[in-house]
Amino acid sequence: MSGRILGRVVVVAGAALALGASSASAQFNYYTTGYFTSPFGTCNQAPLGTITTPPAANSATCTGGGFTLTFTGAGTPGAGAIPGGFSSGSQVNFGNFNLSGSGNVTVPAGVFFTLLVNQIQPTTGTAVFAGAITGQVTVGIPGTPNFSNLIWSPNQTASAPPVSYSLLFNRPGGIAIPANGNASIDAIGTVSSVPEPASLTLMGTGLLAIGGLVRRQRRSRVS
In whole angstroms, what is the distance from residue 73 CA to residue 34 CA? Predict the structure, then answer.
């Protein structure tokens, strides 16, 4: 292959690789909503929408045994009120839990929390994290130290292609919620590095061009 043809090959391949790399550095935007579900009335907050039509509010509460557990999401549903500009591999915040109150309570079986990561960019979609809330909380009882082993135990990874999200557990198996304090819900967001359609199209066009150059060179040698 002549130096001229090789140069064209390098240019075409380099352009395709550049487009492929751009997909890996793509940014994503989102906002989060969530809701509690339980057979107990104090925590029975069914979603205001479905997974594909997320709840309109980005906060929810669960009350029982003298305590209130509140979730506050990141961003606000609606145009222009969302976190923005996160790149692949960024640590991001999905909101916070806040536990307040006093008394002594063991969370009964059947209390669940579902977190919806409502992706806006680069594509619309919803990543879902759901799991049980379990544990015991003791606060403000004379002669007894404050204590909480409350934990939310959801699936650790979920995706809204091309972005995959991985929760950062602060305790094995989930996210611990301290007594009378906040628990941040954080994650790593990673954009898939699979080449975009434009990259694949360019690569195909480049290969066709290379094939044409090689055929023309062979014909010129024969003649």
Answer: 7
C-alpha distances in Å from residue 17, one per residue of 80, 165, 190, 194, 206:
33, 25, 19, 11, 12
Residue 65 lies in a domain: yes
Task: Show the domain range for 175.
Answer: 29-190
Is the Cβ–Cβ distance between 76 and 58 less than 8 Å? yes
Query: At 61, which helix (H) or strand (E)?
Result: strand 59-64
* Cβ-contact 189, 168 below 8 angstroms: no
Q: What is the pLDDT of residues 67-123, one digit of tens each?
A: 999 999 998 776 555 677 799 999 999 999 999 999 999 999 999 999 999 998 999
Answer whether 175's CB lies under 8 Å from 185's CB. Answer: yes
> Is residue 210 included in any domain, yes or no?
no
Find out whether 157 and 131 touch, Cβ atoms under 8 Å. Answer: no
C-alpha–C-alpha distance, residues 7 and 176, integer Å: 58
Q: Does residue 116 sit within a domain?
A: yes
Domain count, the chain: 1
Alpha carbon distance 109, 67 (integer Å)? 16
Residue 151 located in a structural domain: yes
Helix (H, G, I), strand (E, B) or coil at 109: coil
Low-confidence ranges of the chain (pLDDT < 70): 1-25, 46-57, 78-82, 193-223
Distance from CA of residue 63 to its chain's centroid?
27
pTM: 0.75
Residue 192's CB is within 10 A of a number of other CB atoms, namely 16
